[in-house]
Design brief:
Two copies of one chain form a homodimer.
Chain A: H1 17-30, H2 43-49, H3 54-66, E1 70-73, E2 79-82, H4 87-99, H5 101-125, H6 128-142, H7 148-165, H8 169-186, H9 193-211, H10 215-237
Antiparallel strand pairs in A: 1-2
Chain A binds a DNA duplex (30 and 30 nucleotides) through residues 14, 16-18, 42-44, 52-56, 58-59, 72-80.
Chain lengths: 245, 245
DNA sequence: ATATAAGGTATAGACCTTAAACCATTTAAT
DNA sequence: ATTAAATGGTTTAAGGTCTATACCTTATAT
């Protein structure tokens, strides 16, 4: 006898245009497509980009502003500017993750399946230009003048590029979603030579495996890389000390 | 030097409440939570379930009706009823999949990563009641009086239950999404004893592995099961003959 | 015939979005 | 000092969507 699963009753509410715009801009800031002090396109340009009215764009920007992600300045040379992450927002992030650690674990579990899968496919399909782009990112990440924020931004781009090189929109989207969830946690990490070198070596080895078209090795390297990353985040979130680096 | 990725300009449009309701009902029908000739809840009940107005529910139902998924009848004993899949819609589905085979391949690739991952986690966490539910499903699926449609419905429920047993909302959601994409293809499959037995054995072995808490074996069985399924779909979609069984 | 349970329809008000115009502020060029 | 340009800030009118409520129509069972 078949038992019908209960009708999945979900409270739906309309997703407004301003919600979409807010989500996209928040994601862009979290993924560091815009870095600190960088200016977003003007309200008028954003309206054109998103094919929306200026008022609707302003509603999305107002939400970003109320979250402390951006700041507006009027006048010529004015505009909407991305605010740097403050020590306070760091601590708030950490507490939020401590309180909600179970949901972080869910993201990690998903990531450990999805990103190695993306690397596996990418090894079979990545194009020369994409490999070169990856190499440029990795090279830039190990330069001595690479700022902490630039380093974090490059790290995101490397992982998103591998997902894109998988040639599969599902992996691309999933990695983007995962990264948007965990990037605030990664921003908590210290910025030491040891971290830089560890990351450099993992990314370098991954690129070598991708270049060799070795899908299994690419997958394994990615798996170990993000396994290590998850453990480092866990240690950091539950560390007693506060953050100074 | 860092090169900024181009601003991802996407045309956003508001997602209306009726869109959400339409999506959920369409999904429920595709996943065979409602079977042929079954009655959906009344418009008034759906409005309560989704916390929306009746007019909005009617808009969603009108779209379902225009797609030929449901039919409305007025009067007492009237209501909204799920229509059976016709031979024509079968052929349309097949042609659509032939034309858009690349996007089917993307779903299969994603599925081969996500569902084995879900099975791996489920083996470590599945509860006694969930195992019993799975056993009941599998038993029902091999009964001689199990209709073709009931068989397909049970198949869906087994895979969704495993995803749910992973205890991870990301896997749960992803498997749902994947299944909604490929279920129309699975509906094209013949309903022979050979198919029934193959499915039965794969599901039986999977449950045994889950019950043993053997994560690696659960993952491998799931992988081979859906690899076989993808190949069977490919053969069916590109078969010359039309469908009689 | 009548009651009942559905779908079918109509109206008014609240909210969201667009388009277009205009105001206010700041900077750089003149 | 004046002015032009670029930006955010504001207003208004028109149209679309959603809610709430009420009432109409159809078909079945009693």
């Amino acid at each position: 006898m078949l038992i019908k699963p209960a009708m999945n009753l979900e409270q739906v509410s309309p997703k407004k245009v301003s919600d979409f715009i807010f989500d996209r801009l928040e994601e862009a800031i979290i993924l560091k497509e815009f870095m600190s002090d960088e200016q977003l396109p003007s309200e008028r340009d954003l309206a054109t980009i998103f094919n929306a009215s200026r008022i609707t764009v302003r509603e999305a920007l107002a939400r970003l502003e109320s979250l402390g992600l951006v700041e507006k300045r009027v006048g010529a040379k004015g505009g909407t500017f991305v605010l740097p992450i403050t020590r306070n927002s760091h601590l708030r992030n950490r507490d939020e993750m401590r309180r909600n650690w179970d949901s972080m674990i869910e993201v990690f579990e998903y990531r450990m399946v999805v990103e190695p899968g993306a690397a596996y496919l990418a090894a079979q399909r990545i194009k020369k230009a994409e490999l070169q782009q990856l190499r440029d990112y990795v090279t830039a990440s190990i330069e001595p003048d690479c700022s902490r924020e630039a380093f974090r931004s490059i790290d995101v781009r490397i992982h998103l590029s591998v997902a894109k090189a998988s040639g599969n929109a599902y992996f691309d989207h999933a990695v983007r979603q995962i990264r948007t969830k965990i990037n605030p946690a990664l921003d908590l990490m210290p910025y030491s030579d040891r971290v830089k070198v560890n990351n450099y070596e993992a990314h370098r080895d991954l690129i070598a495996a991708l270049e060799a078209g070795d899908a299994d090795r690419s997958r394994d390297i990615m798996y170990r890389h993000i396994e290590h990353s998850a453990e480092a985040i866990r240690a950091r979130v539950f560390a007693d000390e506060s953050f100074e680096d």
